[in-house]
Design brief:
mainly alpha, 2 domains, 4-stranded mixed sheet, globular
Length: 295
């Protein structure tokens, strides 16, 4: 072998050694950083834990959670609500919610579970979507809206969270995948269930997630024969919601959502120029609200 050949071989070996010396630690650092980032998300640290992750970035995080886990989460939330709050049953309000939901349901084909609505008696002006297709509506919200179409708009927004499993995404970020999967593996402890329910009751979503739910609501209203502008009207009505007869209400719905003016403008832009084929909802909203006021 010539001297040049030996020199080329030695240089090649030197380059390989240097590559290994620098690349292996770099790869280990990258892997460690990725592990820390994942840990930060599941333990509530960083922007993602505050609900600022994009829907696309979260898309694969709940895939291992199947129907059984979501149904157990829903059952745990329902049991807590029934135990701690006054839930209305077989009232004009329940009948009205079911009629509105029946109008919206054809646009939600493909869900692995049935959507259910619990109506809770409270001055709180709010509605919440939970894993497993559960939506909780507080009577303070019902009393604050002027038409059944406005109620349909709010329900359509919450259904957007249901369809995209937003509550489940948020629970995974806050509590970790392993904690939620433990619900499907056997009898869970009362402490674990209590913690999960508390987190579920205080879920808030990022601006991007809320905007996606609004867009879903607008499309669903349009396809259901309900004027999409109803969402803008509902939000505008809640924005100027005054205390009713001296009763101070807790207006939560707008506090946990992105800037209201931004959402109203987006809904108005969507509805502008459209001539929707609308059909009035067969709900006596005036009578329903009067029933609530006379309780």
């Amino acid at each position: 072998m010539t001297r040049n050949a030996y020199l080329l071989r030695d240089l090649t070996l030197l380059l390989l050694v240097l590559s290994l010396v620098f690349l292996i630690p770099f790869a280990m650092l990258r892997r460690g950083a990725a592990r820390e980032a994942g840990s930060a998300e599941t333990n509530g640290r960083g922007a993602a834990a505050n609900g600022e992750g994009t829907p696309e970035a979260d898309a694969g995080r709940v895939l291992p959670l199947g129907r059984a886990v979501e149904e157990r989460l829903r059952t745990a939330v329902e049991q807590t609500i029934f135990a701690q709050m006054r839930v209305l049953r077989d009232t004009p309000v329940n009948a009205g919610m079911e009629r509105i939901l029946a109008r919206l349901k054809p646009g939600m084909e493909g869900l692995p579970y049935d959507v259910g609505i619990l109506v809770v008696e409270s001055n709180t002006v709010n509605a919440l979507a939970f894993p497993g297709g559960l939506i909780v509506v507080f009577t303070g919200l019902v009393e604050s809206l002027q038409t059944p179409e406005q109620m349909a708009a709010v329900l359509a927004h919450e259904l957007g969270h249901v369809v995209h499993r937003d509550a489940l995404h948020q629970l995974v970020r806050k509590m970790g995948l392993t904690t939620l999967l433990s619900l499907a593996g056997g009898p869970e402890s009362a402490v674990l269930v209590k913690r999960i329910v508390e987190e579920a009751l205080h879920i808030s979503f990022s601006r991007s997630v809320e905007a996606r739910a609004d867009r879903f609501a607008l499309d669903l209203l349009d396809s259901s024969g309900i004027d999409p502008a109803s969402l803008a009207r509902a939000l505008g009505n809640l924005k100027r919601e005054p205390p009713d007869d001296g009763v101070q209400r807790l207006l939560v719905y707008l506090d946990t959502h992105p800037p209201i003016a931004e959402r109203i403008r987006a809904a108005e832009d969507f509805a502008a120029g459209r001539t929707p084929q609308t059909e009035p909802l067969a709900v006596d909203w005036t009578g329903l609200r009067a029933w609530l006021a006379e309780r």
